[in-house]
């Protein structure tokens, strides 16, 4: 393992360079062109077998060890977000309105740096390593699903992935068996009332009061209907009635997100949200449209592989603590890989000790401590080599 760590230390400057290059040229989900081309070229130079356009815009590279054996897949996503960067850094985004504000530039640099190190060690490797570079993680339906349908997991025995995590101090690795990230669904609603004069409510059906009542009642699903030992989040983030102040609204549009961990809770939210909507509208003679769209399923880590990574991570240079974390209510399409093959997804702490607080992911001032890439690469690399060993 010492050899892997030394090689990665030697690759660190290059990894930083790759990260900063990608950071300057962010591309949005399902619009990635230069990024996958850059990744494919890097792997080709290393002599890996490369497949481009996998499931749309993904890149899959294969490193064959010296002898046949098991196959490990490692995944990094590479899309950016529609955010105008506000950081004042030398490698600030050169593209207006687009920014790597989730650290996917770092994920890609980590995986490329690791690919180079493992390539140097291939004469001693039994088995195969598949590098899955995934497009479009940020926007459902996401890139993972079509990449799997296009065969990126064929022959894979195990998959490992990590997210650089800015809220967590560098040196910490967060693991969790079972659900680590939530299902992320979307609901879109329109309430159709009957517009009228603001002074004559009895001749109208006020869509604004009905929508308001629905938003409040729907929160009672969380407090009164969901099993208190399970969890769900409902956030109605969009409430739209484009209407003059003295006119009763004809129509209100709502949209929101629902986060859950269990299938039964997810189904309950989907059904009972509509029941509340139906009852609210029925009482006052309004009608409605209801559309519930299932996004990514929950990220469900496998026990054996999680324990495997937790154990080996504690002796990776730079790792001071391996902690079991509570699940996060954010979503990730890594979930789809774990529905097909065993594996685990963990967080690599990336908050610099110099920062009092870190800006959250998806913030215009988001950044991470680049040294976390080295820790992530060493942990993923060690997991790969140890898994292939037995
Ligand atoms: Zn993100
Ligand atoms: Zn992300």
From TrEMBL:
Keyword Kinase: no
Keyword terms: Hydrolase, Manganese, Metal-binding
Record-annotated Peptidase M20 dimerisation domain positions: 187-281
Pfam families, sorted: M20_dimer, Peptidase_M20
Cofactor: Mn(2+)
GO molecular function: hydrolase activity; metal ion binding
CDD domains in the record: M20_Acy1_YhaA-like
Record's cofactor remark: The Mn(2+) ion enhances activity.
InterPro entries, A to Z: Amidohydrolase, Bact_exopeptidase_dim_dom, Peptidase_M20, Peptidase_M20_dimer
Cross-referenced SUPFAM superfamilies: Bacterial exopeptidase dimerisation domain (SSF55031), Zn-dependent exopeptidases (SSF53187)
Keyword rRNA processing in record: no
Gene3D superfamilies named in the record: 3.30.70.360, Zn peptidases
Residue positions binding Mn(2+): 102, 104, 138, 163, 362
Family: Belongs to the peptidase M20 family.
PANTHER family reported for this sequence: METALLOPEPTIDASE, PUTATIVE (AFU_ORTHOLOGUE AFUA_6G09600)-RELATED, PEPTIDASE M20 FAMILY MEMBER
NCBIfam families, alphabetized: amidohydrolases
Protein name: Amidohydrolase
Naturally occurring in which organism (per UniProt): Lysinibacillus sphaericus CBAM5
